[in-house]
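Internal tracking record. Fields below are filled automatically when a chain is submitted to the structure queue. Please do not edit lines marked as system-generated. If the sequence contains nonstandard residues, flag them in the REMARKS field before resubmitting.
Queue: standard
Priority: normal
Entity type: single polypeptide chain
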Amino acid sequence: MRPTSIVWRRLPYLLMVLWVVYAAVFIWKTSFVIDGQRYFSLFDDPMISMRYAKNLAEGAGPVWTPGGERVEGFSNPLWVGVMALVHLLPLAPAYTSLAVQVLSAGLLLANLVLVKGIADDASGRNVLVASVAVGLTGFYYPLNNWGLFGNDVAPAVTMVSLAVWLGYRQLRTEAFSAWVYLVLGLATLVRFDLLVVYLVVWVYLAWADSRFRRQHLAWGGGILAAFTLGQTLARVSYYGDLLPNPYYLKMTGGPVLLRLVRGAFIFVKFVWNFNPIVFLLPFVVLPLRWERRLWLPVAVFAWYAAYSVYVGGDAWEHRGGANRFVATVMPLFFVLLAQSLEVLRDSLVGNPPLSARAAGASIVAAGALAIVSLLNANALIDTSSLRAAFLLERPIYAVGNERNTTLGLFLRRITDEQARIAYVAAGAAPYFAGRQAIDLLGKSDRVVARGPMHLPPDLALIDYRPGHMKWDYAYSIGELQPDVVVEIWQGMNPEAAAALAGYLEIRVPELERWLPDGRMYLRTGSSHLRWEVVAPYAFADRMNGQGAGELDP
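SYSTEM-GENERATED OUTPUT FOLLOWS
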């Protein structure tokens, strides 16, 4: 294929079309059938946001339980607002998640368009760089896995890419515009920690665009103050807290040094599994032909990766690949990687090239290196994960979603509308159960979130799971007295057994795939349980369940 051909020039767009097909198959493979009905569900964490959104759409406000205590169990208010709009559509609960997934796919497609624009600006409109950057971004499995499962990664990555593209455009046109700061301000409503990206872009533009430095400082500072103070005042007014409840859950009650060491360990592990040679390539090659315009994607990627280290990483790194923080800035890394491949190609071939044949061969070689890089990136822990990346098997977390949805539908069947149910996985199950919910791990519980972390002395760094290290069974079960306790996080322990003293243990054969021996716990004498429904299930003599070791089987 000649570099001047129409197909070559349109290759980035052809890759986008191919990605649309990929995304459609991916979303379909996340669905499952229960009792003859097909269901779609987001990853369990955004399903917590969906519960808040549903209550907001129904007029109860952005609360975990209508009429209950106001606790901000989410940190993505703008995304919750979008989800609330979805709940105004005439869709059955089985399909509300599908609408969010389709919207997320649209955002990820827009991100690919922006990645092409950033690559064009970074490389001087080099088609090879744009094609490689779009291809790596579009088919990077962790980004698709987080984005197409409805996490706030989809809007976050799109807004970060839009901000970087607007920053480049501003420098290219030599005209000031406040749009980049408005986009970044909105990004802090998608996820408050994108404040890090706001600061990096603001500082970069004020430094690089000296002609309009005063405007950058004034507009950037003013819009930053408006968005941060505005949402903080709204939060204090409505919830009574300075920060979202997940902040207290993840960032307090444990040693700071342990959190930082774990965050660094997780990032090094990510680089190692990615392939350190491929990962370090841009940072070794690009300095050989350094250009000032590359500072922006480098700075955004580096500082947000540092933020991931600061917060201790995420809770699902045992699956491998980029976590939700790093995935948000991976498109910028892929632009840098694509540019580094072009620098290598150009250095080997020469400029002008030795011959047209040599130029064509070098492009094929660069494309092959890009494919090898993508395979390395998608081998999350080992090559077995490539089956999911190639859609040869169901996406990661699809089985966990089916589990939680099945539990929710069962709980709806055995309880009335006034029942209170305690969960470990507090997303899809409470959403589909439609009952009052108690979050045993505290994301939507102020008491648990402000308590101490449970950190055994032999805790492995990979088992330190931010947001999953706090519980208080004496409070959540003993004091709040839920009608049903679905499971115990990481297995039965003396604290949980004592809190469950007034509960009966049942074994539900149809749930044996999802719970150890199909066990769950019912409060004795509860008037909100449909005892005639649970009567056929055998009651165990004692509570010796093994609990749940994973949220995502």
